[in-house]
Every structure is written in structure tokens, then in C-alpha cells.
Write a structure and sequence with these properties.
alpha+beta
């Protein structure tokens, strides 16, 4: 799998144009054609925030091109993964979610087992601890996924407790 470097960022934020170029390069190298359906899917994916499922991506792509089908979404997302632009994640719900992948960038996740809300976080202390543990065991970490599962305030039954998923829906 290839990956996208820091050049895909502008001011710390990825831009659709900078991510489209690795996509185009990948298609050319593989001898694959650009289609209107495929481009609608790629655009919808690159415009997405956080983690997106195939059904949600299908809905977003159909806003751009009503002829997009689920099989095409699935195949295109697999190509995006091969190109190093998408990363797949499974958070215990059985559904695979996808996020934009960037070489050298890493974050971990906290997931509510009740509402499914996902919080991304970075913590240098956790990263250093993982490195020390691996070194003690004779390993060098080349990749890892750190996912914590818990319950949000509302799921724990806290009086007046907030559900971040509900809050995000009302803000969006």
C-alpha cells in the first residue's frame, strides 16, 4: 500500500486537490480509467469528515451522480485503500468505516459501545509507552491501532449526561 505524504496538507489541513493528484497518479500507473461515477465517489469521500460507511458514501456520491451503485462504491473505496488515500477501520459494530489516510499521521480512537460515537485523539505519553513496551519485548513498532471502547455519559445513565452522537447530529 502506498501513502500520502505531508505535501497533501495546506496549513495543516488536507485539500481535495492535493489528495486528488495521488488518486490520478495511482489510476494512471494501474492503467485504470477515470469515470464520472468513480469521481463522484472519490469527491464525496474526500469531502467527508471523520469516519464514513459505504452506505453513507453511496448517498453522498449519488448527490453528485445519481447513477452510482453500491458495488462501484465498494470497488472504488478498495482502490482508494490501495492508493493509500483511505484507511479502513472496524470499531466492533461489524460495519467497516473509512477515513482519509495520511502518511506519518496517526491518531487513536475512543468509541461509545452504545451510540457508536467515535472520538479521535493523540497522546504522546501513550505512544512513548507503547514504544518502551515493544522495545522491552524486542520489537520495533511499524504500525498499530489503538481503540478504546467505553460508554458516553448518557449511555452510563448519568442524570443529564450528554450523548456526543446526539450533540453532533443537532450541530450538523
Amino acid at each position: 500500500m502506498e501513502s500520502i505524504g505531508r505535501e497533501a496538507f495546506v496549513g495543516g489541513k488536507q485539500t481535495e486537490d492535493t489528495l486528488k493528484e495521488p488518486w490520478r497518479t495511482y489510476l494512471r500507473r494501474k492503467g485504470l480509467k477515470t469515470t464520472l461515477q468513480r469521481e463522484a465517489i472519490v469527491d464525496a469521500f474526500l469531502e467527508s469528515q471523520g469516519h464514513v460507511g459505504l452506505e453513507d458514501l453511496l448517498s453522498r456520491a449519488r448527490e453528485k451522480n445519481p447513477g452510482v451503485g453500491l458495488a462501484t462504491v465498494y470497488r472504488t473505496v478498495k482502490l482508494l485503500e490501495e492508493a493509500g488515500i483511505a484507511a479502513s477501520r472496524q470499531f466492533g459494530s461489524g460495519q467497516t468505516l473509512y477515513e482519509i489516510a495520511v502518511d506519518g499521521e496517526h491518531h487513536d480512537h475512543i468509541i461509545c459501545k452504545d451510540c457508536g460515537y467515535i472520538v479521535e485523539f493523540e497522546n504522546d505519553e501513550i505512544e512513548a509507552l507503547q514504544e518502551r513496551i515493544a522495545k522491552r519485548q524486542g520489537f520495533v513498532i511499524v504500525n498499530h491501532r489503538h481503540e478504546l471502547f467505553g460508554l458516553c455519559e448518557k449511555a452510563r445513565g448519568i442524570q443529564g449526561g450528554a450523548c456526543p452522537a446526539e450533540r453532533a447530529r443537532s450541530e450538523g
